[in-house]
Amino acid sequence: MEDRSNMLISEAVRSVLTSFAARENATVEDVLALARSLPAALGDNASSITPEQQTAAINSLQTARPAVAIDQSVSDDTVTCLCCGKSFTMLKRHLKAEHGLSEQQYRAQFGLPEEHLLVAPNYSIRKAEYAKRIGLGKYAREDSPPQDAAPTL
Ligand SMILES: [Zn+2]
């Protein structure tokens, strides 16, 4: 069916646009210019994009804008979610629960390199040390496993 093949091409256009929009220096104008030229480049008969596709391009640009600067999203004790700007010791569970994203989808959405940390460095170190201590058969009481913040009242 012709409609169906057109839809597939639009899907390709959309995915290219989405990854382009994830670049930090991409502007709305860049994305729109690309959106106009892409269908032709991909062999789509319709050389112009619909207002709906324009809106989708702008929306993807906005959702791909990180809430905080990527290079400031990792500190020793916390990693900050680029979707909403909240800080955690590890992002995996939050991404799934709040944004429905896997770690891979999250990296793709913001163009994060494989080495970008999604777990706070200190937390990883502490876990490794804890594991090592267990492995050595020494039970250290002062460094119990992390628990949810206990009420101080
Ligand atoms: Zn979030």
TrEMBL record:
Superkingdom of origin organism: Bacteria
Gene Ontology MF terms in the entry: DNA binding; zinc ion binding
Family of this protein: Belongs to the ros/MucR family.
Gene3D superfamilies for the chain: ROS/MUCR transcriptional regulator protein
Name the record gives this protein: MucR family transcriptional regulator
Protein species of origin: Sulfitobacter geojensis
One GO term (biological process): regulation of DNA-templated transcription
InterPro entries reported in the protein's UniProt record: ROS/MUCR_sf (IPR041920), ROS_MUCR (IPR008807)
Pfam families from the UniProt entry: ROS_MUCR
